[in-house]
Structure formats: C-alpha cells, structure tokens
Design goal:
This protein has 252 residues and is mainly alpha-helical. It has 2 domains: 4-103, no CATH class; 131-247, Outer Surface Protein A, domain 3, CATH 3.90.930. It is built from 11 helices and 6 strands. It has helices spanning 4-17, 31-56, 58-64, 66-77, 94-100, 105-122, 139-144, 160-167, 195-203, 210-217, 228-240; strands at residues 146-149, 154-156, 178-182, 189-193, 208-209, 244-247. A 3-stranded antiparallel sheet has the order 5-1-6. Helix 2 packs across helix 4 and helix 9 (195-203) packs across helix 11. Pfam families: DUF2063 (PF09836).
Length: 252
C-alpha cells in the first residue's frame, strides 16, 4: 500500500491526466471498481470547483449571466494546472483567462476586482500607518520615514462599467480614476482613488523613504511625474485609507 502522501499525489495525477495515471493496487478491489469510484470522486470535485468559482466571482457571474459564466468556468476548470489548485486559489488566473478568450473589458476587470478583493481579505496582517501618527514629526524625520504598500492594499484602474457597478455601493466611485481596496483592520474597504494616488501607491511596491519618493517623482525624465502640489494630498489620502505601512529604520 502506498504511503498517504504518495497516494494523494497519484489520485491528483489521475484526476488531472486521466485513468492511465492511476497505479494498480492503490485501492482494494478490482481496477474497474476503483475507476468507477474515481469517476464519482472526479464529478464531486468538478462540481466543487464550479461552485468555488461562483462563490469567488459572484458579481462577474451576475454580469455575464449564469449560463455564460458556467460555460467559461467549465472550460477554465479543465485547463492543465487549474485542476491541481486548491478551491481557495482556483480563481487565481480566471480574469486572465477571460481576457484570453475575448470577454468584454468590463467582465475581465470586474473579475480582477473580485480577485483582488479576495486577496485583500486573506492577506497578511499589517499595522496601517495613519496620518495622526505623523503629527509632531519634524520635516527631516518625516522625509526619512520609510513606507510601503500595506500587505492587504490593492489598487485597480478598471473599465468604467466596473466603476458604475461598484459605485452603486461606494460613494464617488463611479467617477473616480481608480479603485482602492484596503484592509487596515478586520474589514475590507473599497474607496475611490485618483490617478495620482494610483501612481504613488504603485511607486511604493518596494519600500521607499518619503523624501526619495518625492525626489524621484520630480526628476525631469520621470514618465509619471506628479505635480508637487498633487503629491502630498494623494499620500495623505492613502494614509487615511489605511493603504500604507511604516517600516522600521535599519540601524547599522
């Protein structure tokens, strides 16, 4: 009898690549009976995958309609590699799949928004840097402060239809340049963001001091140069949304 881990691997390979991958002796009884059991198991897993996609992308499903969404889901769930994913991660590349098969920009971006929301929900904890924490800090200390994106923060510049759909629940989102997703505490929050906020947030993919952040944005050859008068309000808005964290200064 195979060890548990090897048996589970063999079962997953058989489910993904077909009954030819199922080794003899894995189950008691005849091979025909084992294959029958595997078919039942495969049907159960297939159904679970479809349900998981429905649960992950409810807005996209509503936009496309059940039949169209279900058709896409079945094609996606049968792709090599997708079958090996856990149900929690099965939707990782679903937005990209919708783009590849020629779905509308609205459907693709809505699926992307829903996946980013789920990523934010499951992201690591982080102590959001709030504006109040900067009160009383002198200018030099403020410029030396190293900040970065909060682990649960995401930003997306989506199709206008997505803004309108989500804007029914979030004030100001319908006409916003971007959509900010943040989880400064326990709850995932969605808010409107400006294009400058999106640029500042993107620039903080890697930790950077506030001083260097300002300096790099003002360089003549900077493609995304931001007017100085617009930069600070965008940074403050990101802080108020709980989208940034402070990194401890390295002592050396």
């Amino acid at each position: 009898m195979l060890m548990l881990e090897a048996a589970q691997t063999a079962m997953m390979q058989a489910l993904e690549f077909g009954p030819g991958e199922l080794p003899d002796g894995l189950f008691a009884g005849t091979r025909a009976r084992a294959l029958t059991g595997m078919k039942v198991h495969a049907n159960t897993i297939s159904h679970a995958r479809l349900v998981a996609l429905e649960d992950t992308f409810p807005r996209t499903r509503a936009l496309l309609g059940h039949e169209r969404f279900n058709e896409h889901s079945r094609r996606f769930a049968a792709l090599p590699g997708v079958t090996a994913r856990t149900l929690a991660h099965i939707g990782t590349s679903f937005p990209g799949f919708l783009r590849e098969i020629g779905e509308t920009c609205a459907a693709v971006d809505l699926a992307e928004f829903e996946w980013l929301w789920l990523e934010a929900y499951h992201a690591a904890e982080g102590q959001a840097l709030r504006l109040a924490a900067l009160a009383g800090i002198d200018e030099n200390a403020l410029l030396d402060l190293t900040i970065a994106q909060h682990p649960a923060a995401r930003i997306i510049q989506a199709d206008r239809a997505v803004h309108r759909l989500i804007g029914e629940e979030v004030p100001g989102l319908a006409d916003a340049d971007a959509i900010l997703i943040a989880r400064p505490e326990a709850e995932v929050l969605v808010s409107a963001a400006t294009s400058v906020m999106a640029k500042v947030f993107t620039a903080l993919e890697f930790p950077e001091s506030i001083g260097n952040l300002f300096a790099s944005s003002c360089e003549p050859d900077c493609k995304d140069q931001v007017p100085p008068d617009d930069y600070m309000p965008a940074l403050i808005a990101l802080l108020e949304a709980g989208a940034l964290i402070q990194l401890e200064q390295q002592v050396g």
